[in-house]
Amino acid sequence: MDRSADNPRRRPTMSDVARAAGVSPMTVSYAYSKPERVSAETAAKVREAARQLSYPGPHPAARSLRRGRVGSLGVVLGERLSYAFEDPQAARFLAGVSDVCAAEGVGLTLVPITGGPSDARRVAQAAVDGFVVWTTSDDDPVLEAVADTGLPAVVHAGPSRAGIPVIGIDDRAAATAVGRVAFVRARRPVVLGFPLDRARVRQLLPGDQVAEVRFPVTRHRWEGLREAWTDDDRAASQVRLAVCPLNHVNEGERFALELLQGAEPPDAIAAMSDELALGALHAAARAGLRVPEDVAVTGWDDSDSAGPAGLTTLAQSLRDQGADCARTALGLPTRGPARHEWRVVVRTSSRRPSRPRGPAI
To answer: What predicted TM-score, i.e. pTM, was given to this entire model?
Structure first.
């Protein structure tokens, strides 16, 4: 009797196909996994029985148990799923991951994160061979969920966890270098920054009143930029941190325009991304200000739009970092050190120093 017919919602099994074809379950298994061990006539009987039962083939999880691997690499973004397609830098990073997956014949699974209690369960249930975690906060429970799977994992840019390597650049040192360019002859600097924690609250803070920063990338870039300002015996309270809830050009434009039209308009804006910096350039144009004479602007990442905009920025290869993250998670040798290279690219959006300083890295 065909048991699957008793319950139309029940997924047909290999045993159901075997009974319908009059063969053993092992023969059905061979018909899918080792067809050379089955005669053409028997294979045809199995295929016909599978067609009649709407049997899609062996379940991927069952195949993975027999092989000892799934054949897919999981990427945990720590953001809404659309972020992978909307943010240019996330897209660059994922392109590097996909380069390695394609070369190794491995699939790519994006694990969506909502910020809710279901995130940890979603990670635990992901059918993957390892994880690449896009930078997230120190207290993100997804990190523990990834560690609890016992699968190989790597985190891009932090935070660090015991037994899980981190690949990225030295954000603090890079921020100090770009800050020294951003703040040339500035008196009222502003850092246009990323969220401080997962609450993503929009706020404007004096530099001496910035409390705990849970996102390592935000923390390290803020520390480096603040250091660039205070190195010349200038007070930390003089540099303000404008916290943007989203890394988007529109968000950067809105916040920058509000500041430029306020009581203490900044004369230098150091943004933690090119997206925010491009928004600041749009805001300066709307306010009728000259760049860099009235307000200098710097970014981060050297995106495709940075050059045409004349944006001074921090260049790094997120594609190379994504590729090395994928290789690490798959147990392959990487092509570079865990700390990748970076350099400051000076264009027309920043002021030239009045006297020579040490060379940028």
So the answer is: 0.80
